[in-house]
């Protein structure tokens, strides 16, 4: 039987994926070698603190769900040997007391995130967000990438593929380039923003508030990262 080197490398990844899929993340900690080994990945949980982001009909706001997904993703990345750097790990923005108005606080928050992101010299930057439209009919995860960056485009395509495969095979959304998203535009590394779903859609809002569904989102992004670095 002809076994390629690529197949040998992928075996521990499959074992890790299958193991963690069937066990609760709080009950098992695995360490294994994956293509993420020693890769620096900055994770940005969108909004936070003074800025709650989108607000749905249930108790949790966008910034809370963003953080919950990001913390789950950090755990997976670290289990795979990667280095996860978070712009925030609590429900607090990166603004200071020097900023008084909402606009000043927002500008300072984004500026400090940019400094942290680029100062970490990451291999990849991922920002986690939730979408919201006035009309409730829209749903589905979607990725947006740094315009003009081919690696960002490839990463966005890979993440979108895994999000579709793991969350909703009928999701026909495709990755889109953006130069209007400040952190994606200003990041010096390949960069992708993941809109994990719509808080404005009642059915999807229920899913986004569910811990198991959040774990599936984190898994989709994690597997997408592994495949990107293979």
Automatic annotation (TrEMBL):
Example of a GO MF term = N-acetylmuramoyl-L-alanine amidase activity
UniProt keyword annotations, A-Z? Hydrolase, Membrane, Transmembrane, Transmembrane helix
GO BP annotations, alphabetical order:
peptidoglycan catabolic process
Q: Which InterPro entries match?
A: MurNAc-LAA_cat, N-acetylmuramoyl_amidase_3, Spore_CwlD
What are the EC numbers? 3.5.1.28
User: Which Pfam families does the entry link to?
Assistant: Amidase_3
Outline the extent of the MurNAc-LAA domain: 114-226
Q: Which GO terms describe its cellular component?
A: outer membrane-bounded periplasmic space
Bilayer-crossing residues are 7-23
Q: What NCBIfam families does the record tag this protein with?
A: spore_cwlD
Protein name (database record): N-acetylmuramoyl-L-alanine amidase CwlD
Native organism: Senegalia massiliensis
Which gene specifies this protein's sequence? cwlD
